[in-house]
TrEMBL record, chain A:
Heterodimer of subunit A (variable subunit) and subunit B (catalytic subunit). Heterodimeric FTR forms a complex with ferredoxin and thioredoxin. Keywords: 4Fe-4S, Disulfide bond, Iron, Iron-sulfur, Metal-binding, Oxidoreductase, Redox-active center. Belongs to the ferredoxin thioredoxin reductase beta subunit family. This is Ferredoxin-thioredoxin reductase catalytic chain, chloroplastic. InterPro entries: FTR_bsu, FTR_bsu_sf. Pfam families: FeThRed_B. Catalytic subunit of the ferredoxin-thioredoxin reductase (FTR), which catalyzes the two-electron reduction of thioredoxins by the electrons provided by reduced ferredoxin. One of its GO terms (molecular function) is 4 iron, 4 sulfur cluster binding. Transmembrane segments: none annotated. Its EC number is 1.8.7.2. It comes from the Eukaryota.
TrEMBL record, chain B:
It comes from Fraxinus pennsylvanica. Belongs to the ferredoxin thioredoxin reductase alpha subunit family. Keywords: Oxidoreductase. The keyword Oxidoreductase applies. This is Ferredoxin thioredoxin reductase alpha chain domain-containing protein. Signal peptide: none annotated.
Amino acid sequence: MRALQASTSYSAGFGISAAAPPPRPSRHRHVILAQVEPSEKSVEIMRKFSEQYARRSATYFCVDKGVTSVVIKGLAEHKDTLGAPLCPCRHYDDKVAEAQQGFWNCPCVPMRERKECHCMLFLTPDNDFAGQEQAITLEEIKETTANM
Amino acid sequence: MTTSSAFFSSLLNIPTSKIPNMDTPLAKIKYPSRRRTSFTHFHPIRSAPDSVSIIDNLPAATSSSAPSSSATTTNSVILDDDSVNDDEVKKGESRVGVKVRVKVPLKVYHVPKLPEYELTGKVGVVKQYVGIHKGKKISANLPYKVEFVADEVLGRDGKPVKFLAHLRDDEFEFLD
């Protein structure tokens, strides 16, 4: 059987159907990232919470909204996986136990009692990195975390 | 079959040499770059919060002394940590009910009816040690839950307002 594997240039004059196989799409093997994307609903919940808590505690978001966005997404991811928004900037031996105990559930105890947020989500006005805003939109979150 | 290339060359006025060999079906074309005969590295695709799990997967041949020693180090660190923390936990839990005085400058913002409250020098009672929960170690860095009374403000029922504050063990001294 004649395998007509002529390239397109040959078929031009003869009407031979160019059975050239289409170039195989380069299969980028998607590396499974360590963190799965949080659900949009959780991101929205944590975004609203962050805005409301910043207002209530008289703290401000960082001048770099990327920082704020990453933390909000981290909180949303923990909320999805553990049921409680565990502080995303810390390492835990047993996340489930920590979420149940609640010390590091956002707003964590150091934030509630001393207004110390080492994630730089809630910044007191005297902080060098504190901006003027207590609000962030979903678009801002998506834009600033788009490269991840 | 064999005449196919000659056929094309004659019709298209292209030298035979330039016409690809039709006899070889394309399926046989090999892509040598994609051949994977041996893995020397295992791609850490999955999430691994602790480094111990990745190190375990390295084949013995390629594991140099560094990763294997760090694996053992990690293991030993965990063991040591547990015994150290057990002491801490026992010490903390034994101090429940002891009166303490805050010795560092400290302000809290969570007292009801008070936007800011200075805790320095105040005396309170240890209510709980929060470093352990259902037998599991918790990473709280302010493990002592101390109850204070805010004399300056009166609650709804006329009594001074009580509140709890979390403290580190170097922020206060025991009054016993």
